[in-house]
Amino acid sequence: MSESQPRVFYGWWIVLVSAVGVFFGPSVTVYSFAVFFPALVQEFHATRAAISFGFTLHNIVGALWLPVVGNLIDRFGARRILLSMTSVFAIVLLSAPWLVHTIWSFYIFYAVLGWMLPGPMGFGVVVAHWFDRRRGLSLGLLALSVGIGAFVVPLLSRWLIARFGWHAAYAIFGGANLLIALPVVFAFLRNNPAELGLLPDGGTSARDISVAAQETTGLSWAEVRHSSAFWVMISAFVLASASLHAGILHLPTLLMDRGFTAQRAAFGSSVVGVAVIVARISCGWLMDHLFAPRVGMLFYACSAAGLFLLWMAPAGSSVFLAAFFLGLGIGAEVDMMAYLASRYFGLRSFATVYGYAFGAFMIAGALGSLMMGALFDHFHSYSAGLGAAAIATTLAVALLPLLGPYRFGPAKGPLGPRAALMEA
């Protein structure tokens, strides 16, 4: 450990660097897809279903690749893998004006973007290694940066498409990754505090030294996948993800079916967005101070209540309260995934575990939305789908207590003097 430490713990700079690294990733390919959608339909003279298939490919390829990314990060370190992925992601976006001119080339383009997406999973692994007692808050701040990007980048996308066209818009975002994200990550990202002679949380005590030793402790992937806690955790995340994605993605259509104007229905989606931001900060902070499965139960119980409310209340302002409850659940889930994986399985195979959990989360979300649509087509009503989603989320609440006590809990005792100063 170094003799003199900076006034601001470098881990908080890691959070900021990670936020920059992830800002032009999912915000471009996921949250701005709806903005690019009309231009893509017009360019390729394709149906909405045909263009949507590109997004489906992006998510499936990304979900299947995440466990491989996690394994590579555990073996070679996150910095090297993230730099490689960011570089390829930027180059593929830059190639859009020259290579994407048919619907099939668009499918390949979007599948490769899903494959190389520098998302919150990889950067979350780095942040988790830099913090122990403030791991929840730091992961929440990283997730918040994704939420800010989800608000800002679609607005920027709309302006760029109107001014320069969709090809140029993708290329400009590629340039942003190449000229902003890549240099920042290259210059400042470090895999763990030991690389700079520091300890997690900026600590200085003997307890903090013991926490630093946990970098090499934890369960192997073989031990994790044979653990009942892993399958309980995955089951809870899958049930909640399928239900919450189904409810949120179908929310505007559901509201318009019940007589709301398009503007009021859009307001419902905005309420979800506000709740996501609230959840990403509050859930992380609460997990640092309370037992994380109980925090998860609280957020999932709110979401289950929201689904029951949408199911039972046909109209009225109560649906906006329901929308807020749904946003709390989806906003907390990514933070909980990373935090619980680190506390129950340690950091030895953390990236691999997180990769499988995040991949399952993505696939479940896609299937949940699909099932909600299929149930609506069959019954000509959202009632059956909402009822099933509410029950599934309630089951997720019931599963979390089965995880039991932490196996790799946070350090006990007060923070070191510099970390305490930062806390103040």
Order of helices and strands: HHHHHHHHHHHHHHHHHHHH
**How much β-strand is present in the residues?**
under 5%
Instruction: Report the total helices.
Output: 20
CATH topology of the largest domain: Growth Hormone, Chain: A
Q: Please compute the radius of gyration using only Cα atoms.
A: 21 Å
> What can be said about the biggest beta sheet?
none
Helical content (DSSP H or I, runs of 4+): over 70%
Give the helix/strand class.
mainly alpha
Uncertain runs are 417-424
Give the terminus-to-terminus CA distance: 23 Å
CATH architecture of the largest domain: Up-down Bundle
| Overall tally of domains | 2
Averaging pLDDT over every residue, what do you get? Answer: 86
Count the E strands.
0
CATH homology-level superfamily of the largest domain: MFS general substrate transporter like domains
| Top CATH class of the largest domain | Mainly Alpha
| Outline type | globular
How would you sum up this structure, described in words?
With 424 residues, the chain is mainly α. The protein is built from 20 helices and no strands. The longest helix has 30 residues, at 135-164. The radius of gyration is 21 Å and the shape is globular. 52% of the residues are buried.
Helix-strand layout with pairing:
Elements: H1 10-23, H2 26-29, H3 33-44, H4 48-76, H5 78-94, H6 96-99, H7 103-115, H8 120-130, H9 135-164, H10 166-188, H11 206-213, H12 221-225, H13 228-249, H14 251-257, H15 262-289, H16 292-312, H17 318-345, H18 350-379, H19 383-399, H20 417-423
